[in-house]
Design goal:
491 residues; mainly alpha; 0% strand; 77% helix; globular
Length: 491
């Protein structure tokens, strides 16, 4: 799981309606009159909106802070549990008696459903369930998937663990779409960028906490039972699933608050704004296809590596289990504060292709250092964390520069779809390489993936230059030309 957050996508911004809007005035007057009649009749009315405490008033900052906190914790459980296998790689392989390829299939099964669901998550929220019910349903999928995953370990049944990860994947990606939709519904303008940054940071915190605490939980369960077995693993995963229940609770509270705000403010229920038309694929430009290649090849060298990273640092650098968990989570730790910073930097300076090029080259240097040197791996991993954060901020917005607005939903859905397809295939391939060739060949494989991404970036630079594209414009130039275009449109 990962743009995704782990793997980010694009959402159209829309703000909530002001409570004094003309279209709501008549309805609110009728409600106020009804409330006065109820008060005269001795009814237990809550009183007019202006009398509410600040923390209960949807228009006031304290209430919006409460909603923001719930939005951030909405995805905490899914991000925490997504990387449970990475935090417990040694324990999973030992207790379940599986090889690395079978272990990495736990990640592949999370990605398979999202090869298709990326196209339909927004549709289900907009047209079928609605944002509130949809968020609750997706949260339930995440909870049920984690419980089945844990039961598979308790019953020593690996295929059941795979099934649990498949069900988990159904809810995880769509829950991220719902999270963004809530953000668009409640916040607007400059607030929205900050909210997206905070949500991304909380996702990274969830992944980081998982990396550093699940091994400790396993040790405590082992001490309690007095032995290591599939039951020890299952109980550990079940304890980790408490975070999913916490996120489900946040989804229920958020649904109540959103329904309440809809009544008090005449606020429409949030929608993704995405329009998916598969026929638009034939109109995609060559530049967009190069962006897709960059995305797939780059993330294929990051997420599967993190999934296998803990044991890599133990075996090559002789780290303790705790040290290996800490360094393996540094990518997420750096991403939490740096993603908003790099996002602001790219917004202010532009030149997206140059930033993507810098991120890809830095990632390549990181993998080469990890493969061929015994330098302190903290250096390479910190560079990888910075590069990962920078690429997400520079790459994903480029889609909006090369695709008409009415095709954005299809473009982002297709990008996430092939990303999940690539992650599923590469995860299994990485496990097979490690089983047969070892970590050196695996690092060479990841370096080759980054090289393909680098070639695609260079091609994109020249294609953009030759076609007069705007992907590498400075922010000032882009803003100036947009103003000119807006003026000409008005004339």
């Amino acid at each position: 799981m990962q743009c995704h957050p782990r793997r980010p996508g694009g959402q159209a911004a829309a703000g909530i309606q002001l409570p004094l809007a003309d279209r709501c005035r008549g309805h609110r007057q009728q409600r106020a009159e009804a409330e006065e009649e109820e008060e005269e009749d001795g009814g237990g009315s809550a009183g007019p909106l202006r009398a509410l405490p600040a923390v209960c008033d949807p228009r006031r900052l304290p209430h919006r802070f409460l909603v923001l906190a719930l939005m951030c914790f909405l995805g905490f459980g899914s991000y925490f549990c997504y990387d449970n296998p990475a935090a417990l790689q040694t324990q999973v392989q030992r207790d379940m008696k599986v090889n690395t390829a079978q272990f990495m299939a736990l990640y592949a099964w999370c990605s398979w459903p999202n090869v298709v669901l990326c196209f339909f998550g927004g549709f289900l929220i907009d047209r079928v369930f609605g944002i509130r019910l949809g968020t609750i349903i997706f949260s339930i999928f995440v909870c049920v998937g984690q419980v089945i995953f844990a039961l598979g370990a308790l019953l020593n049944t690996f295929w059941l663990m795979n099934m649990g990860r498949f069900i988990f994947g159904i809810g995880g990606e769509s829950l991220a779409v719902a999270q963004n939709t809530y953000a668009v519904s409640w916040f607007k303008g400059k607030e929205l960028n900050l909210v997206f940054g905070l949500q991304l940071s909380m996702a990274r915190i969830g992944s980081t906490v998982n990396m550093n605490i699940m091994g400790w939980i396993y040790s405590r369960v082992q001490d309690l039972l007095g032995y290591t077995s599939p039951s020890t693993l299952g109980l550990t995963l079940m304890i980790g699933g408490i975070t999913c229940l916490f996120s489900l609770t946040c989804a229920l509270i958020l649904a109540y608050l959103d329904k309440r705000a809809e009544k008090l403010l005449c606020k429409e229920q949030g929608k993704t704004g995405e329009v998916i038309k598969l026929t638009d694929v034939k109109d995609f430009s060559f530049s967009l296809w190069l962006i897709f290649v960059i995305c797939v090849c780059y993330y294929a060298a990051v997420f599967p590596f993190i999934g296998l990273g803990k044991v890599f640092f133990i075996e090559k650098f002789r780290f303790s289990s705790q040290e290996a968990s800490a360094i393996n989570s540094i990518v997420y730790i750096i991403s939490a504060p740096m993603s908003p910073v790099f996002g602001l930097l790219v917004d202010k300076l532009g030149k997206n292709i140059i930033w993507v090029l810098c991120a890809v080259i830095t990632t390549l240097a990181s993998h080469i250092m990890l493969a061929f040197t015994f330098w302190n791996p903290w250096i390479a991993m910190c560079l990888l964390g910075l590069a990962y954060s920078l690429l997400a901020c520079a790459l994903w917005p480029m889609v909006a520069f090369v695709v008409p607005e009415h095709q954005l939903g299809t473009a982002y859905g297709f990008m996430q779809s092939i990303q999940n397809l690539g992650l599923a295939i590469i995860a299994i391939a990485a496990g097979m390489i490690l089983d047969t060739r070892g970590y050196l060949f695996l690092e060479v494989f990841f370096s080759a993936c980054v090289c393909l991404s680098l070639i695609a970036v260079v091609m994109l630079y020249f294609v953009n230059h030759l076609t007069g594209g705007d992907l590498n414009w400075s922010a000032k130039k882009r803003e100036k030309l947009q103003k000119v275009a807006a003026t000409e449109k008005e004339i």
